[in-house]
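Q: Here's a chain of 215 amino acids. Please give me its 3D structure as C-alpha cells.
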Amino acid sequence: MGDPKFSRRSYDTPSHPWQGERIKAEVVFVNQYGLKNKTEVWKAQTILRNLREQSRELQARLRGDESQAKIESDALIAKCGRMGLLPLSGVTLNDILTLKEENIFSRRLQTIVYEKGMANTIGQARQMIVHGHIFMNGHKITVPGYIVNRKEESSIMYDPASPFNDEMHPMRVSKKKVANHKIKETKILKEATAVAAMADAEEAGIEEIVQEGDQ
C-alpha cells in the first residue's frame, strides 16, 4: 500500500520519451483543450487504457460463461454512461474499445465550463476554475481536470460571491456583446430623455402654446 504521506503516481508515462508522432499529437491535445502540460494527456490516456483493459478482460470471461463477468460488465457500462463517455442505453463492451482521448477530455470540468459559454476561451475557463470562480453541487471546484458526471453537469455555475455573476463583467462577455449593450443603453437613455422632456413641456404648458401658434 505504501506510506499515505507519499501518494503513488496515478498515471503511466510513455514507454519511449522521443516519439515524434506521439509528441505532435500530445501538443495538439494541450493546445486544443487548454491543458497545463502533457501530464494531463497521460492521465486521460491512463483512464482510457484502464477502461479498455477491463473491457477486454470481461469479454474473455464472458466467453467462458462466467456469471460474475456479466454483473461486472453491466457495472462497467453503467459507469461509462454516468461519466458521459457513452450513451446510457444500447451500449456494449465493444463500444468501450472505440473510446478515444477526446471522449475523456470532453468530460473535463475545464472543457464543459467553456462549452457552456461561461468563459470566452478554453484558457480562461481554466483560470476561472483555478481561481475559485466555479461551483458544482454547491461546492467550489478548483481542479480543471475533474471528470464531470452527467448528474453533476447541470449543477455547474459561478460562485455566488464571484464578480463573474455580473453579466457585463469585462472578462465574461465579448467586445461585440459589450458594444451591443452600450448601443441598447444609449437607445434607452435617449427614449427616457425624450419622455422626460415631453413631461416637462406639458407641465410648463409649452404644448398648448405651440398648438395656439400653429392655429
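Q: Can you summarize the key feature?
A: Residues 175-214 form one domain.
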